[in-house]
Design goal:
Layout (H helix, E strand, L loop, with lengths): L6 E6 L3 H11 L6 E7 L14 E2 L3 H4 L6 E4 L4 H13 L3 E4 L2 H18 L3 E2 L10 H7 L6 E7 L2 H12 L4 H10 L8 H4 L2 H15 L9 E2 L7 H9 L2 E11 L5 E11 L11 E8 L3 E8 L3 H15 L8 H4 L11 E8 L10 E8 L5 E8 H6 L9 E10 L1 H14 L4
Parallel strand pairs: 1-2, 1-4, 2-3, 4-5, 5-6, 8-10
Antiparallel strand pairs: 7-9, 7-11, 9-10, 11-12, 13-15, 13-16, 14-15
Helix pairs in contact: 1-11, 3-4, 4-9, 6-7
């Protein structure tokens, strides 16, 4: 077996990431990787690369026996899946940055990797420059992995930073994110949490062996976060971040979601600003580890693609150890969360669904409460993201059944009832 495989690349897409990769490869001759052809959609667009490099015929790349690696960095999920599956069946290794495609097709992609024996790597699809997938694959045994929480979307983090630190309005901050190339052309994918939830589905596979469709995750974005919520956060010395979280409960099952969250100022994630991403992993013996890096932009994403290409020289494959070699964990909705909810009118808030309410502020135009509610209530109903309602989790939001019983007993004791 040759140790250093010469990589001849067929590249799909020459946008921010594709062009970044082209430039990065020119600066890393030691990698022994060269781009032979680039497939693009619009041949009329001016590009900073020789014209003979480009084609609009994807078969020119997929059927070329001299091309042994396909790198796919296009936006549309359907065509991306066709490219990846054809390439794998044609005996080519594949590197992809398409988080939506991976989230939508994980079961088929796992099957294709089994059938073809080819490598399919996608470090750049989550957290760009942070090697989170490789670390979850190689370093953490899932029985020791207590929890993982992360800021996985650079665009929403950029917007929240601008809202908090520069006091920009939501729309202004969003526009700035788009101008700087941090937000997608269709910002709803970022802003409404879809992008973060897509990434979370396959990070859960690498962390806990869980296969879940995006639609089956409870998630929301930052589209309802208001200036008033930011003011309350400041008053309590918190930041607001869009946090993807997974935690192993005492039952052995896993709680997972992607929701806006109050973050204490001493929390690692509080340091993650602008387009940066951050991941905090807590395990049995290593305690907390914090990964931090740029989560969006041309070169950070290209650097992750480069890292995957480098691994392919040594025939590296994901083993999906948590899925195939351990008993995969299961998701559960049987736990409670402590939430902050702000709203215009009480009539939209089902107060009877709360276990208890710790604070309520009804005197202002914008009312809010902090209380404890069963997670299933959020999963089954949507009142918390309708009628201009904003829901933000509090720090350490997950409360298990055992704790609920203790807390209830304590409050009854304090009230002199027990």
């Amino acid at each position: 077996m040759e140790t250093h495989k010469q990589l001849t690349i067929g590249l799909f897409g020459f946008g921010v990431v594709g062009e970044g990769l082209y430039k990065v490869l020119q600066q890393t001759p030691s990698l022994k990787a060269s781009i032979k052809k680039v497939c693009i959609k619009d041949p009329g667009k001016k590009r900073e690369a020789p014209a003979e490099l480009f084609t609009t015929d994807r078969d020119e790349l997929l059927n070329d026996p001299s091309i042994n690696v396909i790198v796919e960095v296009i936006n549309e999920s359907g065509p991306a899946f066709e490219i990846v599956s054809t390439a794998l069946k044609n005996g080519k290794s594949v590197v992809s940055a398409s988080k939506k495609m991976i989230a939508e097709h994980m079961p088929e992609l796992l099957q294709l990797q089994k059938e073809t024996g080819e490598s399919f790597l996608y470090e750049s699809a989550a957290c760009a420059s942070i090697p989170v997938i490789r670390n979850l694959e190689e370093y953490y045994d899932n029985d020791l992995l207590h929890s993982i929480k992360a800021i996985v979307n650079g665009s929403t983090n950029f917007i929240l930073t601008k809202m908090f630190e520069d006091k920009l309005g939501f729309q202004e901050a969003l526009l700035l994110a788009q101008q700087l190339g941090f937000a997608e052309s269709d910002p709803s994918l970022d802003v409404e949490g879809y992008d973060a939830a897509n990434k979370w589905t396959f990070l859960l596979t690498h962390a806990y062996g869980i296969i879940v469709a995006t639609k089956d995750l409870v998630f929301n974005g930052i589209q309802h976060v208001q200036a008033g919520d930011a003011a309350v956060a400041r008053e309590k010395h918190y930041d607001i971040k869009l946090v993807a979280q997974a935690k192993k409960l005492e039952t052995g099952k896993v709680a997972a979601f992607v929701l806006p969250q109050f973050v204490k100022q001493e929390d690692h994630l509080s340091f993650v600003k602008n387009e940066y991403n951050g991941v905090v992993i807590e395990s049995g013996f290593a305690d907390k580890q914090f990964f931090y890096g740029k989560g969006a932009g041309s070169f950070p994403t290209a650097s992750a693609v480069l890292s995957d290409l480098s691994a392919l020289r040594y025939q590296y494959k994901y083993e999906y150890k948590k899925l195939y070699h351990h008993k995969p964990h299961e998701l559960t909705n049987d736990f409670f969360v402590r939430v902050y909810v702000s709203f215009d009118d009480w009539k939209y808030i089902p107060r009877e669904k709360f276990e208890w309410i710790e604070e309520w502020h009804a005197e202002t135009d914008r009312k809010y409460l902090i209380g404890v509610i069963h997670f299933r209530e959020l999963e089954l109903n949507s009142w918390w993201k309708e009628n201009n309602t904003s829901l933000v989790l509090t720090p350490e939001p997950i409360i298990e059944d055992v704790e609920i019983r203790k807390l209830k007993k304590k409050s009854l004791e304090l009230a002199g009832i027990v």
